[in-house]
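2024-03-11 09:14:02 DEBUG pipeline.ingest accepted 1 chain
2024-03-11 09:14:02 DEBUG pipeline.ingest length=113
2024-03-11 09:14:03 DEBUG pipeline.predict start
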Amino acid sequence: MADSLEFEALWDDFHRVVNMSSAELAAWLKVRDADEETEPLPEHAGGETGQHVLAILQKRRTDLTEDDVRVMRQVVDTVGELVDAENEPEPENARDTGRRHRLMTLGHDPLKP
């Protein structure tokens, strides 16, 4: 696994950008995948990355795998590309439904303080 200082920085960055609780993310993933005719089983709701973020939120640091660390880096990078952390939320961008929904699937709600 990554060295201790690097891992601590990643852990902090991940929990900074993932501002939804595991309960909020689980509920969002269920709503996101539900449609008029079908709804996935709760443990299958949301995409692979969203499910992986949810699993990471439910783990202790000591239980993380290399794959978890890879997903954490991916989420930090992706959210960083889509969000101006210094000025968030920007009213015109934060309310962009498609962008907001994509971020929420990764555990980041740009409208959440």
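2024-03-11 09:14:41 DEBUG pipeline.report Residues 66-82 form the longest helix (17 residues).
2024-03-11 09:14:41 DEBUG pipeline.predict end
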